[in-house]
Design a protein that fits this description.
Elements lengths: L17 H7 L4 H13 L3 E9 L6 H11 L6 E8 L6 H11 L3 E6 L5 H11 L2 E6 L11 H10 L5 E6 L6 H18 L11 E4 H9 L7 H8 L3 E6 L13 H15 L2 H29 L8 H34 L6 E4 L8 E2 L1
Parallel strand pairs: 1-2, 1-4, 2-3, 5-7
Antiparallel strand pairs: 2-9, 3-8, 4-6, 5-6
Helix pairs in contact: 7-10, 11-12
């Protein structure tokens, strides 16, 4: 039975007419078909834990064991969705084994590598829980903190999302500085409350998840979509743990590309900056012209300097090319959205029969 007041509730808790679903999923039939399929083949459970996986087969078994122990005393049933983002190692084979061993584990195998955000969105669109936990697969997000996230969300009915706030992030200096700069930028671009610390370890209520899934953007960024969808957010302190082995796949250059993409995908800030710079340059040119005219009028100089003229030509030429480049970036993003490439494709999934939620 659908909870009263849910966006898909037609009044009696079971009204899912085609017209109503078209209003809720305006981006096309794929998401609607996905929702209808999982609605008819699975039952709603209390908690869904979505974990995108890449090169993590070596420690997935430990992760699932810790999740099971962490939720052993949490009332209700739960499921774990492991989304293999076309990992080149044995991650999918490990997921299949775990799905056969644990009734609450369900696996999705992507046909091609889509990146963490699309893989996470895939899991969100297939989750059936009333509350959805998003976390990484590298054990830096401790599963033991999941009950704390659940308790915080239950204790604050007005919140739509609770994010972990890491007291001592185990990242390098450049990574921490870059994350801080990105966080401040997101405050301006997306209206993120400054008192809220962003994190990819979070729990969301189903209405917020459904709202995020409605965004049809080709390059979804989960954090910015959360901040654009709600201001009812909360934080709890969580200990950030070390990776069991290997290094993070997010280098400084990749994080820079993500921030760059987030700016051009959802904001007109670069265009406004270019417009402001052009206006300031025009004012500066006018003032400089008046200065040179007065100096010529009073006989200080006989003609403007050659070096100044060359520098001005170079400056304004560079400004023009930079502005054209900004427009080009926006055109590229517009073309991607218009072409509507496939955000993800599922090659294989574990049997539906093994996906029954388990009572904690």
């Amino acid at each position: 039975m659908m909870e009263p007041g849910h966006p898909l509730d037609g009044g009696d808790g079971e009204c899912f007419t085609s017209d109503r679903l078209d209003l809720f999923f305006p981006g096309g039939t794929d998401t609607k078909a996905t929702w209808l399929q999982r609605r008819t083949t699975t039952s709603m459970c209390d908690y869904s834990i979505v974990i995108p996986c890449y090169r993590s087969g070596a420690w997935l078994s430990e992760l699932i064991q810790r999740v099971e122990r962490a939720l052993a005393n949490v009332p209700g049933c739960f499921e774990v969705l492991l989304v293999n983002d076309a990992s080149p190692d044995d991650t999918w084979q490990v997921i299949e084994s775990l799905a056969g061993q644990y009734g609450f584990v369900h696996g999705l195998d992507m046909m091609f590598n889509t990146g963490q955000f699309r893989a996470t969105l895939c899991g969100m669109e297939h989750a059936v829980g009333n509350q959805i936990v998003l976390m990484d697969d590298d054990l830096q997000h401790p599963p033991e903190a999941i009950p704390d996230l659940i308790a915080a969300l239950d204790a604050h009915p007005e919140w739509d999302c609770v994010m972990a706030r890491f007291k001592s992030p185990r990242h390098g200096l450049l990574r921490r500085v870059g994350s801080r700069v990105a966080a401040e930028l997101f405050c301006y671009l997306y209206g993120r409350p400054r008192e809220i610390a962003p994190s990819s370890f979070r729990i969301l209520r189903r209405p917020l998840v459904e709202t995020i899934c409605r965004h049809g953007t080709v390059n979804p960024l989960i954090g910015p979509l959360i901040f654009r969808s709600t201001r009812r957010l909360g934080n709890i302190d969580v200990e950030h743990q070390s990776r069991p082995q290997g290094r993070s796949g997010y280098s400084i250059s990749r994080l820079t590309r993500i921030v760059w993409q987030s700016i051009f995908s959802t904001s007109t800030l670069p265009l406004r900056l270019a417009s402001g710079l052009g206006f300031c340059s025009a004012v500066g040119s006018f003032v400089l012209g008046v200065v040179y005219f007065l100096r010529w009028w009073f006989g200080v100089i006989s003609e403007p300097g050659f070096i100044t003229t060359v520098l001005l030509i170079i400056f304004f030429g560079g400004l023009t090319l930079a502005s054209v480049g900004l427009l080009g970036e926006y055109l590229v993003h517009i073309m991607e959205e218009v072409r509507r490439p496939v955000r993800y494709a599922i090659r294989e999934r574990t049997p539906v029969g093994s996906r029954d939620g388990v009572d904690a």
